[in-house]
Amino acid sequence: MRFHHFLIVLFLGLSLSTCVLAPSLDLEKEEQKVEISAPTLTETIDTEKNIKNALLQVELPDCINSYAKKEVAYVARVIDGDSIVVIINDKEYEVRYIGINTPEYEGAMVEKAEEATRMNRELVKDKHILLITDISETDKYHRLLRYVFTEDAFINYELVKLGVASAVSYPPDIACQGLFLEAGRKAQKNY
């Protein structure tokens, strides 16, 4: 009788181990078939050129001076709702959005500041952007002052339109102030 139980246990054990091992063997075969290919340097350079060309072709609102300085940058990180760090020619710069302000991370405004930062992150993080000057190059904190565009959005305007930023005039950089004020009025009606 014991020998009979032993054979049954042995048979069941072998059957279960086959069921357990068989799928893992198939997975190993599948893993061996996966090929990973990285873009070549030429493909990367071509992609960068295409992105830059696309950004330089973005339709700009009438408030932007056609002679304004334009630069393509990569967003390295989002600081808050109205500031980012970008890379231009392998150097990092802090950028402050012109004509808008978002809540600060203090007191009762923390939740609104977090929302503005989250929206800004969704719009620009890890993207190439177009930076455009107004009158001033930098503010008193040495941050670049810029209008910011992605291929499909005017970021300064979008943040006001979404209701997470306010239109604020900081002369002499006021070329798009009318556009931002109008977006702010519309946002207030919608919220």
Provide a descriptive summary of the structure in words.
The relative contact order is 0.13. The protein has five helices and seven strands; from the N terminus they run H-H-E-E-E-E-H-E-E-H-E-H. It folds into two domains: 36 residues; 150 residues, OB fold (Dihydrolipoamide Acetyltransferase, E2P), CATH 2.40.50.90. The radius of gyration is 28 Å and the shape is globular. It is 44% helix and 19% strand. Helix 4 packs parallel to helix 5. The chain has a five-stranded mixed beta barrel with strand order 1-2-3-6-5. The protein has a two-stranded antiparallel sheet with strand order 4-7. The chain is of the alpha+beta class. The N terminus is likely disordered.
SSE layout and pairing:
Blueprint: H1 2-33, H2 41-56, E1 70-78, E2 83-88, E3 91-97, E4 100-101, H3 110-124, E5 128-132, E6 144-149, H4 155-161, E7 166-167, H5 177-190
Parallel strand pairs: 3-6
Antiparallel strand pairs: 1-2, 1-5, 2-3, 4-7, 5-6
Share in helix = 40-55%
**DSSP helical segment count:** 5
- Could you name the CATH topology of the largest domain? OB fold (Dihydrolipoamide Acetyltransferase, E2P)
* Average of per-residue pLDDT values: 85
Query: Would you report the number of β strands?
Result: 7
Main pleated sheet: 5 strands, mixed, barrel
Order of helices and strands: HHEEEEHEEHEH
Give the CATH class of the largest domain. Answer: Mainly Beta
Shape, please? globular
